[in-house]
Amino acid sequence: MPAMGICEWIAAGRAIAEGQLTRYAEKAHFTDEFEQSLREMTGAKHALAVTSGTGALIAALAAAGIGPGDEVLVPAYTWMATATAPVMVGAVPILVDINETLTIDPEDIERKITPYTRAIIPVHMGNAPCDMDAIMAIAKKHGLIVIEDACQSVGVTYKGRALGSIGHLGALSFNKMKNLNIGEGGAVLTSDDQYFARARSYHDLGAMIRGHEDRYNEPAFIGVNMKVNEIQSAMAQVQLRKVLPMLERQRRRRASLAPILARSSQFQVTPHNDAESAISLTVLAPTREAAIALEDRKGIWNRLRDNSKHIYTNWEPIFAKRTFHPKMNPWAWAKREITYTPDMCARTLDILERTCVVNLGLKYPTCVMRRVAKGLAV
Ligand SMILES: *Cc1c(COP(=O)(O)O)cnc(C)c1O
Questions:
Q1: Measured from the CB, is residue 82 less than 6 Å from ligand 1?
Q2: Span 197-242, pLDDT tens digits
Q3: Which residues are the active-site ones (predicted)?
Q4: Rounded distance from Cα 296 to ligand 1 centre (Å)
Q5: 22: exposed, middle or buried (C-beta count within 10 Å: 0-12, 13-18, 19+)?
Q6: Is 374 a catalytic residue?
Q7: Distance from C-alpha of 84 to C-alpha of 294, rounded to nearest angstrom
Q8: Mean pLDDT of the 267-295 span
């Protein structure tokens, strides 16, 4: 995540001084400008700023008309919000294994498709893109909607296209842990006019008193309020300019370290769905014990296994199928009995047990990190 600095502080101050704090105030402009920058960065026809990545996922699902009776495929390794978002629109999440790339396994997607499957949410984990060619082909074959969860990979590309702009819809997060950080925030991307109109309507309580809704002839339906304020957008605009340079530094550092680590006989560098523009760097050990031994050499890597709410076995409310009201329970509306068990995605657990995330050490000179990598790649 890029550092927060004086420029964000000034931008926030400008928004406050202008005094048009809600995005639909007559003279407000920061949010429109930020959305324009998002469109330019991603190539998506539409971008809608919302208050979180979770909100972006829910708005995207609502825009696509996903609801009760529908099954949505999500990876077993992701931030829990990917699995809870379908529940919020009345659908149920179906867990899919990841493969060695740490992203959803296209082969397991095929196995998990039922007559009730409506959508897939591929998650680009920690800047590692999913196998989007395979996923889009499967979706086309089965008539499924693809909502990319690009919350952990804002600004990253797959074969030259921005993540979040490849599927029918995409969700971004601007939470403090993400590539673009304003504390909390998010955005929906789509190139489909009707999905955009529906997402915008949903995020603004139906938006029926705003002139812009007429254009797409979408009757107002009940929504929520996840509109951003102008202070957030002013800060986000500054942060956005820092994202691509930051990713480029990471990409160069990764390109310099990965070939060194690849010489090791004790582990392999994790395969990548777009090796040429790779940013994430993780290594895969042959066994859990070997991974633990690697982890003991502290400082440069950590095992993924410790990642609490990123692992399906820790999604307690999903396992319990517990919602805020017993009658508002999508599992009761599902077309078949859905059960979740701790061993249902054993392959995911095995891969996570054996994977270590490599710290790119951006605070240190490249030569130092190269020497560290050489010492480890024995
Ligand atoms: C962070 C994250 C979200 C949710 O984003 P928030 O802005 O925290 O609501 C969803 N999916 C993934 C993969 C994330 O990492």
A1: yes
A2: 999 999 998 777 777 666 676 788 899 999 999 999 999 999 999 9
A3: 178
A4: 29
A5: exposed
A6: no
A7: 34
A8: 91
Q: Determine how β-strand 71-75 pairs with β-strand 46-50.
A: unpaired
Enumerate helices (H) and strands (E) in the chain, giving the number of each. 13, 13
Residue-wise pLDDT for 29-73, tens only, equals 999 999 999 999 999 999 999 999 999 999 999 999 999 999 999
* pLDDT computed for residue 4 by the predictor: 85
Helix ranges (H only) for the chain are 6-18, 30-42, 53-63, 81-88, 106-112, 132-142, 193-202, 230-261, 288-296, 316-319, 330-333, 346-354, 366-376
Phi, psi of 189 (to 5 degrees): -115, 145
Tens of pLDDT, residue by residue over 151-174, are 999 999 999 999 999 999 999 999
- Cβ neighbours for 371, distance < 8 A, ≥ 6 positions apart: none
Beta 71-75 vs 117-120: how paired, if at all? parallel
Say if CB 139 and CB 146 are below 8 A apart: yes
Place of tokens 């710290």: 359
Tokens of 25: 């105030």
**Residue to substitute in 1, 151, 169, 177 for testing ligand 1 pocket (most ligand atoms within 8 angstroms of CB):** 151
How many Cβ atoms sit within 10 Å of the Cβ of residue 203?
25
